[in-house]
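To whoever is covering the structure queue this week,

Two jobs came back overnight. Logging them here so there's a record in the thread.

Job A:
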Amino acid sequence: MNSNKPSKKSVDRTDFTELPASFSASTISDLINSFLSHRGADLQLSGAEVRKFGAQYLQILLAAQAAWRTDQLQFTILPMSDELTAGIELLGVSPELFSDQREITP
């Protein structure tokens, strides 16, 4: 039987990075480039320093998470600052969306 579901890629690394404290026009490019440099590996982000969070920030995170899910790789944000958690909730998304997978220890 041939399944259309792709098999999970063999992952030999987990990358770790921190989210910027705030999201602005100057950080968009840096954040996207950072995500692109980590493609092909499980990625755990620290949201501990996030102080300002809005819809554009969430949009970037959701797009990145979708890319990682397509690759069948983990994309988690642990830990999350109170501001990050509140911002995600305010925009109607459950913060658990980004932490429903196992936490990876460096």
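Job B:
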Amino acid sequence: MTDADAVRDALERKLASFIAQVLKLGDDVKIDPEKNLIAQIGLDSIEALDALATLHELMGVSIPDQFNLKTLESLRSLAVYIQRQFGPEAAQRFLEMDLSGMDFSRSEEM
């Protein structure tokens, strides 16, 4: 296993935790990194974009204009996106973030 593979695997685990928190999934929900998120957890486009916006906010960057929604198909594709788009230093910063105390609820405005 290469260092990039090890980082990708760690990102997949961290992203699973992140998505579970953002979407308020139960502790018993296990997300397979290679399977489609829509099929596994019923992720809809609004939830996907909310999670994506929150992730970019945590990374301190804007969502690229050319963002491909296929990036959100699986944890694996999202982990690879983070590695390629932001580089190893940003990936490491995300891995070191303590997500447990963060409030990911969004207030709904009418």
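Note for Job B: The chain has a mean pLDDT of 84.

Please reply-all if you pick these up so we don't duplicate work.
Q.
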